[in-house]
Each structure stands twice: as C-alpha cells, then as structure tokens.
Amino acid sequence: MSIGLVGKKIGMTQRFFENGESLPVTVLKIEKAKVIDIIDKEKRGYSAVLVGYGYVKNSKLTKQMKGFFSKKSQEPKKILKEFRIEKINELKPGMEIKLDVLKDKTYVDVRAKTIGKGFAGSMKRYNFSGMRASHGVSVSHRAHGSTGQCQDPGKVFKGKKMAGHMGAKFRTTLGLEVVEADLENNLLYLKGAVPGSKNGYVEIQEAIKKKSKSTIKERVEKYKASLAEMKSIKKDKKKKNNKDETNSDKKIQVEKNESK
Predict the structure, then answer these.
(1) Between the CA atoms of 216, 217, 218 and 224, what dihedral angle is there, to the nearest 10 degrees?
(2) Alpha helix segments (H runs only) across 31-90
(3) Predicted confidence (pLDDT) per residue in 197-239, tens digit
(4) For the structural domain made of 5-117+166-209, what CATH number should be given?
(5) pTM over cut 0.90
(6) Is the N-terminal amide bond of 76 cis, ω within 30° of 0?
C-alpha cells in the first residue's frame, strides 16, 4: 500500500484536448497533509504511517485528542488516516505530503460517502419493475410484492431487498484515470464521476488493479506524432516536386538550345 491523499470534491466540468476529444472530469482540491506518527513493526506487528489532513480548531477537539496531538507536538488535524507501508525510514513526523505523491500515477482509486437519498422504495433502491400500471392492480403499483414464505420458515430472511434508507454509505470507485495534476493550485482532475456530494471529503490512493487501456496523454502524444509525420511527408513531397520541376525546366531549355 502507498500513501494516499484526502481532497475536497469541487464539482464536475469538461476538458477539451488537441486530438479533438472531450472528457468529463471531476475536480478535487487536495488538502495539505502532514505525517503525525511513524508506527514500527516492533510496537504493533506491522509498519505504517499516520497522516493528518485538514485544519480544525483546538476548541473542537476532545481532551483525549488534545493530549494526543500535544504528545506528538503536532498541530491538530481534522482527519487522521493510517497507511501500511514498508519504507518507513524515508518519512519523519512533521513531514509534508503534497500532490507530488500522485503526479506520476495514471490511475487511482477513490473512496467517499455517497449522497444520501433518505427512505426509498424498492423500485428506486433496487430497480424493481413494480406491479402492473393498468388493469388488475389497485393501490400497490410500486409495491415490492411478497417478501416471505409459508409457515415454515415463518420469517423474512436477513438481507432481503426491501424499502429502506438509501445512500450515505462509503463506496470506492476503482481505476479512475488521472487527466491532470495541477501542482501549483493543488488540483487533481479525474476522468468520470466520483462518489459523494460537493465539498465532501474524498480519499485518493494509487489504483490496486492494473489497466492496459490507453490514457488521454498517450492518445494526444500519438496524435502529435502522427501530425509531425504528416508534415514531414508533405515537406518531402514538396521538395521532390520542386526538384522534378527544375529538372523538367532544364530539359526544355537544353532541347530549345539544340533546336537552335
């Protein structure tokens, strides 16, 4: 596992590229992170790093957390995340972690809390077809139908798809393409949608699964290379045509001189 980042979801927009493609992108504002603590293998049986994100007032902290931060002699952080890594020697408490961590990555995994939809019926929640909308059905057009069996087992099994609270759960979107990493403004542009509402916190990490798909950067570079190749071919053709014209002019001149 590598060190991840936490960002705020600003919203969605569109990016246009030289090869004529347009991509829908989600813009994430990356929060500045600091290493709070280094966890040794001797203490807990695994090596990890504790990273803090975001600003929080001292008055908002509990006594326990105030004591924790004062003991580590670090400024308070809103979010604390632990990442299991092997190379601990490179990191020290108080060290800043910026967007540079993901600048060379092509794909990332994003985890966030989805938008809460409140109490939803079975048709909205699980895409049930519902009852008939016309003949023979009264009052129960959007009902989910029967949920149990007979006297045996005489109950509804746990996990049955029924009406209930929808959304507001942590979900991970795998393998989102990094379109651009703006290091100056701490902005990350990811292709496609990211779970969660605007101004919600999002966890970003290097993608677990490998992808063999071509990225937008590769496609743009390929397009530029093909353009350059076409230009060079055109130049060569032009030179050849000019040479042929000069040779033909010389031949005509020689023929004229001979006839005289």
Answers:
(1) 110
(2) 41-44, 63-72
(3) 999 999 999 999 988 888 989 999 999 999 988 888 888 887 7
(4) 2.40.30.10
(5) no
(6) no
